[in-house]
User: What shape does this take?
Amino acid sequence: MPPLDGIRPVRFSRVFSQDTWDRLCQKNATLRDITASRQADIALSSRSVRHLLNSLPSGRHVSHTQGLGTWFSRLFRRRRREEVGLKMFKAYIASLHDDEGSVNPYSLVHESSVELSDPEHFRIACAFVAAGVCRFDRRGRLVSTDKAIDRAVVEQIDERVNGSVTRLAYAFIALNKPLPSGFVELCFKPHIVSAMVAHTGVSTAESVAVLDDLMASHAVSIKCESDVTLEHVMELKNRLRHMGLIEDAENDGINEGTKPRPDNKPRLPTPEPSQHYRCDSDDAWLIRYQVENHRFLKFGSDFVKRIQRWGQRNKRIIGLEVVEVLTFAIVTGVTTGGIGTAVYFGSKLAYKLLQIGWGALMDTIRTQLNKIRLRRVEAGVARLSCRSGEHLDSRELKDIALLDAVEDDEDDKTTRFLRFTESLPGNRITEDKHRAVTRLLDSTEYFARKRSLTRMANLMLDMKQQTDALSEQGVTAGDSVKDSVRFQQLQAVARAHSERFGEAVRDYDQMIVASVQKVTALNDTFEQQFTPLWEPFKEMPAEQVGALFNEAAGHSSVRGRWYLPKEDNFGWIQSVVKEEPGNASSRRIRECIAEAVALQNQTPQDHNVTSNKVRRKVVQATLEGRDLLISYARSRLQLMGLVWVRAKFYALVDRVISLPASLTSGGSVGAAFIKPILSPVWAAVYVFLYVAEKVTTAINNKRNRKRNQATQERINAEGNNNLSLSVDDWLAMRRQAKHLGPDYVKNVKRLMKVLDTMQALSAEQATLDKASPEYRDFLVRTAAAMLRYKMLMHELQAQLYGAVGLMHHASMQYKSQFDRRLQCIQVAD
Assistant: This one.
């Protein structure tokens, strides 16, 4: 029998050669065959061959490529790989008989020399079975499979051959494969006995006797291969550690070939109950693998949790839907005698299913369009990267202004389709030079609104639950095997959530970073364009400049108060044009406005404040009435669709009811008695639901704003390093960020358009005569462009430092805090 102090090192590079291993490490390389002289034949995979064939020229060379393809296909037939796994196994066995420190490349072991009853041979066979390249047939013989052997498979085999037997057993458990017959007697027990002998120096017979008693105990109960489970193995190793027969868990489990104790005195104390359970690296690997592959996740409870969170996010909408359905059902039942309620529920269900299906279809179309836009941007960045000779990535660009140099591939059909969709009303892009940035911002904002913000909020809530569970479970983590495994599972799940956060926040993070970098570049461009456009204002008195800016503030592109020609806008201008250090444009505008305000205070004001208030209220009432009419018209169109569905349903019911009467040639009441009767009650119900929707929306938005402000004050508090937010806090931040995200991106695109307008004004300035009547209109338009830019910048900063940026900052801070907590738990464990 071979020695029990562990298997000798057997690796692919030792069995064959380092050059063979280097060739196998190439991309898409697989092991095709092994000769009798132990020479490995490395070949490209079929996928690489197809790529090679596709890259060859066409035309008159087709016959040559077809012949080459036929020849390559023969190399990758299944029969060519049938015996590769078994030949590789024999090569590994043959290397065990090589002289120490040398490699014999001239022979393969004969099949008769393979003894599966030999612990070393059996262990190597188990490693090949676990890797999937071999299997045991019904007679217990080792046969090959058709699995391709590449670098990853070879690394798995080498790791399991040269690793601990515990890790090898865990590999079968992780893959949900039964352990081979004889594994306990030929691998598991010799492995543990070898570790006991090496650590204590006692005889093999005594070690075997103690191990048999422990394995036969009720707590361990390992009698056959099916009893080898994570809990049983952990119980056995824990008892052995507590008795001092193997090394402690800090030394990474049961290691074979360890040196004896310094005193070299045998000591076999009687088994005692364990006081503390620990997980070594092998146990942690299996738990982490099972968690990552969802073996311990309860899909039912996870699905229920998702539904609960969806209900928390949409409780207002759900409440309004329930009230609407119940109200209409009651009114329909009362006006039709009761049977109309059933008809209403049927038609409402059909309408809702149609609405959900249509919404899902439109979301799918929008998702695919935005994916295409992102791919176009990445393709343009790749072409720019080839021209510049530097590696660039649209998701990791340090200077987003480089995207202005990205050009489309005019010959691509996808590009022409995107040009068509972007030319539609509502999707028009300002200029070609901003096309790539606009696509990037639109796509990332859409994905952030549809999935990123929701995933971020769910992960934040999951992390909060994991932190509470880890704190609670950490108290009893070592009391039993079950508690120890549960604690490791929670840690693995927590690490998985931490890793998933990067993918969840990617779209939202890219939107924030890209917009900030683009706005910074736009600010530099604005300051350059501002200087020549400000020259005419420098020559004017402050009172005239103030009058021009006051008129420009009421422009339709700025405040939109063109109907108040005598309104005083100086206070609004000073609130929008903030004083910023180093910002020359803001300083000059504020100085002129301040001087104009000082002069205005010295002269009588002719602004009719009362008239302005009346006009403002009239216009406000008109706009609200317009919104009400649009909303009512939209609801009427939706109701017409619902009535059409109901009419079809009523016609079907009428035919069913009239069928018996038509057969007996008698009369029938039909379905007229169940049709809804229109009355003032229906108008009252509609008004009630409309007002309820508006009121609840206003209340919900106000509550979210207040909670957001309170959360931001807590986060910005000095020395607040322990961020603790409730479920309502995260939901409010998500709601506000989702609500204001589209406006945030629109403001960035509006800034691009304002700069294009200022560039056009700069070109127009050189063609105008200062004495012409059009010159004053030019100055008003110039002042309006400046004020519009400052107004948009003011709104962007409020959004970035408010709801849009708060969600990003809070999630990043909480993620960092969560990672520190996990690191502390891991160090303490």
The first strand starts at residue 29 and ends at 34. DSSP finds 27 helices and four strands in the chain.
